[in-house]
Every structure is written in structure tokens, then in C-alpha cells.
Design a protein that fits this description.
The protein is an alpha+beta fold. Helix content is 39%, strand content 15%.
Length: 168
């Protein structure tokens, strides 16, 4: 069995947090349990049911706009849906002219990936990209798609489903 070669040097720094340190999670953790969170800031790219449409939009962008979108994934501030886009700074970072940065920014605006808030500051469409928890950032936009069920009920269903797939 082959193992992903990138795992040989992968080290994931984590913080261990006790249940009592996070009151709103008390009901979801057993007594004395810890949970782990990555200590490195990250952004999530959201796919969803419309991932094919989103992918078409991203792939239809110019190379400069794709560079800007990629830069955004690395530089969107933690727990924020805003990003500062300074054309002059990005020229050297992205290796493109200021005119190309302007066109790339306009492409992302036209594709509804970003929206101008004020000069050099843009909202990022959380359907595409988010840094932090969308549940915490947009509690009024939650929609429950499933409810927790008893583990005794889920396990046989999952096992049966996996067994059926293997039998095919």
C-alpha cells in the first residue's frame, strides 16, 4: 500500500483545548475531553452542490485574476470577509502590471467573487472563500440540512451502505 509522500515531512501544529475552556461546546464534549484545532491560520474554499458552476467561473478567469484569487486565499484575514487589495503592492507580489491587477480585480467583481466596500477594501463572497467559521460569522444565514441521530441508528446504516458498495 502506497502512502502519500508529503506525509513524511508534514507536521500539523495544534492547540489542545479543554471542554471547560469553551462553554458553548460543553454539551457536545464528554467530561474531561479535549478537542484540537490547528494553530496555523487557514482559509477554506467552498464547493457545495454548485461546485461545477463555481469551477467554470474560476477557470474562465484570466491568468492574472486567478493569481489574484489565489493570493486572496493566502491573505484573507482570519475571521473576516474583507480583504485589502492594494494594486501597487500586488504588482510585485503577483508579478503583473498595475493595469493587469486592476483588470483582475474587476474580473473578480464581475464574477461576484468580491464586492467593493470602500477604496482598496473588498468583501469576499463566502460562497467561494472564507477565513474562519461561516457559522459564527453569519449565524442568521444558517440552514439546518440534517439533525443528529443516535449513533446506534447511524452505524448499521453506514455499515450496510458500505457493504452494499463492496458487493457490487
Amino acid at each position: 500500500m502506497r502512502i502519500n509522500p508529503f506525509l513524511q515531512t508534514l507536521e500539523i501544529p495544534v492547540h489542545r483545548v479543554r471542554k471547560r475552556d469553551v462553554p458553548e461546546w460543553k454539551e457536545s464534549l464528554s467530561e474531561g475531553e479535549y478537542f484540537e484545532v490547528e494553530s496555523i491560520h487557514f482559509a477554506r474554499v467552498y464547493r457545495g452542490k454548485d461546485k461545477e458552476d463555481k469551477m467554470k467561473i474560476i477557470l474562465s478567469l484570466s491568468p492574472s485574476a486567478i493569481r489574484l484569487y489565489t493570493w486572496m486565499q493566502y491573505y484573507i484575514p482570519r475571521d473576516s470577509d474583507e480583504i485589502r487589495i492594494n494594486d501597487n503592492e500586488l504588482c510585485s507580489v503577483l508579478g503583473i502590471s498595475d493595469r493587469q491587477v486592476q483588470r483582475a480585480r474587476l474580473e473578480l467583481v464581475n464574477a461576484a467573487i468580491i464586492y467593493r466596500k470602500k477604496e482598496n477594501v473588498y468583501w469576499v463572497n463566502p460562497r467561494y472563500l472564507c477565513s474562519g467559521s461561516r457559522i459564527k460569522m453569519y449565524p442568521d444565514n444558517k440552514r439546518i440540512v440534517s439533525h443528529a441521530v443516535e449513533e446506534e441508528y447511524v452505524a448499521p446504516t453506514v455499515i450496510q451502505s458500505l457493504t452494499n458498495k463492496q458487493d457490487r
